[in-house]
Design brief:
Blueprint (H helix, E strand, L loop, with lengths): L2 H11 L9 H6 L5 E5 L4 E2 L8 E7 L2 E4 L5 E5 L4 E3 L12 E4 L3 E7 H10 L1 H6 L20 H5 L15 E3 L4 H11 L3 E6 L2 E7 H9 L14 E2 L4 E2 L4 H11 L3 E6 L2 E7 H5 L5 H11 L3 H8 L2 H10 L4 H27 L6 E6 H5 L10 E5 L5 H21 L17 E3 H13 L3 H10 L2 E6 L1 H15 L3 H11 L24 E2 L1 H19 L6 H8 L7 H27 L7 E2 L6 H26 L1
Parallel strand pairs: 9-10, 13-14, 17-18
Antiparallel strand pairs: 1-8, 2-7, 3-6, 3-8, 4-5, 4-7, 10-11, 11-12, 14-15, 16-17, 16-19, 20-21
Helix pairs in contact: 1-7, 8-10, 10-13, 12-22, 13-15, 16-17, 16-18, 19-20, 19-23, 20-21, 20-22, 20-23, 21-22, 22-23
InterPro entries: CBS_dom, CBS_dom_sf, CBS_domain-containing, cNMP-bd_dom, cNMP-bd_dom_sf, DUF294_put_nucleoTrafse_sb-bd, GlnD_Uridyltrans_N, RmlC-like_jellyroll
GO molecular function, one term: [protein-PII] uridylyltransferase activity
Keywords: CBS domain, Repeat
């Protein structure tokens, strides 16, 4: 068997139900497959009926839709459809659409029937007992199973199922291919003793060896990817998904400190969790126009519904939704640089507000700014950065992130300045904290660099924290400002509701429930001199500094999660009903259990506001 067929055989062996075939049947199968390539938006199949063949996705993604256009499933690498793999009645009514350039292995139904007749375990996979299998495929609309819930908080180490497979850099390409075949893996680690040097994948064997006719006796170090991207075994599985999507990789070495713990693949993740968020992020980075990005971003409400159905925690949902905003922002900046040319001086694109804190739910307005290198000269460089900011802010608005009503965006000249000017801004806000300055600090003290020169951003953060650390007068004024948002709870623990107008007889979960906790955590963080930005991270970190008791931090943590979870479920219900997501909830929409616990959460916030007030009044 030549190296290309061997590579296909190994891919098949790594995917159920082909792992149930005998060694002989598995080795013979690659020669019987048709390798088909479908361009984005092409129909699959392009001739005949869906059940005429079995399709195995090698790369790319396919959506299956019903006769009325309803999304039934979204499938990715390693997923099967067609023949009897979909198990949805009336196959002729199902249509497949390639949602990105897709390579599939196609096997005729007659050949598959013959294989089933010779292997009962293999045949069982395609029997009627598997009727619910497609429901577990990648889908926005399917109800999530327990595995889908767990992946939001499951460490990567719990997904590793085997020891790391490695080979020294001096091994030959042929020996590497042999070990990968024997171990039935699609990638292998290249190590020097305990140190990770590189990685080789089945794709590398195809594109760097077979396609170029490279000598198989050369050392594998000649084709490996050096110093590959890695994550730690303690990182969450959903972070691995987003990392793979952002960098367009399918094999991720996992580290335990300096030691290699194992290899995680996109297929491993697909077995446990819907990858709809990953497809969205991956799709965004492939777009060449704002119009196409707008089409992708329009799917975010569906994703929120999916996360709500999966009972995702508010923290994990916020990270996932925000990662899509980050991807859209980054891709817009890349497109702007392609259009305008390389930047004349270094810059950092910085997000503020909920995007900076990674706490977004449904799409919201944009808060951002540009920090430019001090070599910036307005006369020589001003037009470039104005054009870049305009392109990105207009693009974000087109994708549903509306312009900030307060114009706190990089498109505004005031918020597109060199580092020295930004340092002067913060010095003035902190040394002369009049009301407008306090309002601005509530936005610009929550910052995160999205793209560009991280060092510029770090210098600004360090300057800001040095100015606020131990500054009791400024912190007292910030504490007073934090008390301006009060929980909607009356003296007798009754809800205080909005009267009149569009939102009559409701309360605002965001501004009167979540924002007060965000404000409290910000004050604690500035007092401790911490650079944490996410609210839950802030609450976890400031306990050690003595700014808040451990019990108080835990109570606020629980209150924020409960209120945020209610908000996500509320917005998901609105989206499912065909409306727009908002933050205004009527008490009648709450169960007795929810109503009681929400009052407890609001009481916690009020208590901690009183503690903060007493601390800084003294």
């Amino acid at each position: 068997m030549d190296i290309e067929l061997m590579e296909i055989r190994d891919f098949l062996a790594d995917h159920h139900p082909f792992d149930q075939l005998t060694e002989k049947a598995l080795s013979e199968l690659p020669a019987k497959l048709q390798i088909r390539y479908f361009r984005r938006d092409a129909a699959v199949p392009d001739t005949g009926r869906l059940p005429d063949h079995l399709y195995l996705i090698r790369t790319g993604a396919v959506e299956l839709r019903g006769a009325d256009g309803e999304l039934l499933a979204r499938l990715g690498e390693g997923d099967l459809f067609g023949y009897r793999a979909s198990h949805i009645d009336e196959h002729s009514e199902i249509q497949g659409i390639a949602i990105e350039d897709t390579l599939v292995y196609q096997l005729a139904a007659g050949e598959l029937d013959r294989m089933c007749s010779q292997n009962s375990q293999f045949a069982f996979f395609f029997g009627s007992a598997k009727k619910g299998r497609l429901r577990d495929a990648i889908s926005f609309t399917a109800q999530a199973d327990q595995n889908q819930i767990n992946i939001m908080t499951t460490p990567i180490r719990e997904l590793l199922r085997r020891r790391p497979i490695s080979i020294p850099a001096s091994a030959s390409i042929m020996e590497t291919a042999r070990v990968m075949s024997e171990e039935r893996v699609s990638s292998i680690l290249i190590c020097g003793g305990e140190r990770l040097l590189g990685i080789v994948t089945d794709r590398d064997l195809r594109s760097r060896v077979v396609a170029k006719g490279l000598d198989h006796n050369l050392p594998v170090s000649q084709i490996m990817t050096e110093t590959p991207s890695t994550l730690d075994s303690s990182d969450f599985a959903f972070e691995a998904q987003l990392h793979m999507a952002r960098y367009n990789i399918h094999h991720l070495p996992v580290m335990d400190g300096d030691r290699v713990a194992g290899m995680l693949t996109a297929t491993d993740l697909a077995k446990h969790q819907t990858t709809s968020a990953v497809y969205l992020v991956s799709d965004i980075y492939k777009q060449k126009s704002i119009q196409r990005m707008r089409e992708v971003s329009a799917k975010i409400p569906e994703l929120l519904v999916s996360l709500a159905a999966a009972d995702a925690t508010a923290m994990s949902a916020g990270h996932i939704i925000t990662s899509i905003t980050d991807a859209i922002t980054t891709r817009l900046l890349q497109l702007a640089e392609e259009q305008l040319g390389p930047p004349p001086v270094p810059y950092a694109w910085v997000a503020a507000g909920s995007q900076a804190r990674e706490e977004q739910t449904a799409k919201s307005d944009q808060d951002n700014c540009l920090v430019l290198d001090d070599a910036y000269d307005p006369a020589r460089h001003g037009e470039y950065f104005k054009a870049l900011a305009t392109f990105v802010c207009d693009g974000l608005d087109s994708c549903g992130y509306i312009y900030c009503p307060g114009e706190m965006m990089a498109i505004t000249d005031q918020w597109r300045q060199p580092l020295r000017t930004w340092k002067n801004y913060f010095s003035k806000w902190i040394d002369q904290p009049e009301p407008k300055a306090l309002m601005l600090t509530c936005v610009f003290f929550d910052l995160r660099c999205i793209y560009g020169d991280q060092q510029l951003f770090r210098q600004l953060r360090e300057h800001m924290l040095n100015k606020t650390r131990g500054n009791r007068i400024f912190l007292a004024l910030m504490a007073g400002n934090a008390l301006s948002h009060q929980p909607p709870l009356g003296f007798f623990r009754n809800f205080v509701l909005i009267k009149g107008g569009e939102h009559d007889h409701t309360f605002d979960l965001k501004h009167n429930g979540i924002v007060p906790i965000v404000d409290l955590a910000r004050v604690y963080t500035l007092a401790a001199g911490s650079d944490a930005v996410n609210t839950l991270d802030r609450l976890d970190l400031v306990v050690s500094g003595g700014e808040i008791s451990r019990d108080g931090a835990h109570d606020l943590h629980d209150a924020l999660e409960f209120i945020s979870d209610l908000r996500i479920q509320h917005q998901a219900r609105q989206i499912r009903a065909g409306g727009k997501a908002d933050n205004f909830m009527s008490p009648e929409a709450l169960s007795h259990f929810e109503r009681s616990h929400l009052k407890d959460a609001f009481s916690v916030v009020r208590t901690m506001q009183n503690v903060l007030q007493q601390r800084y009044q003294r």
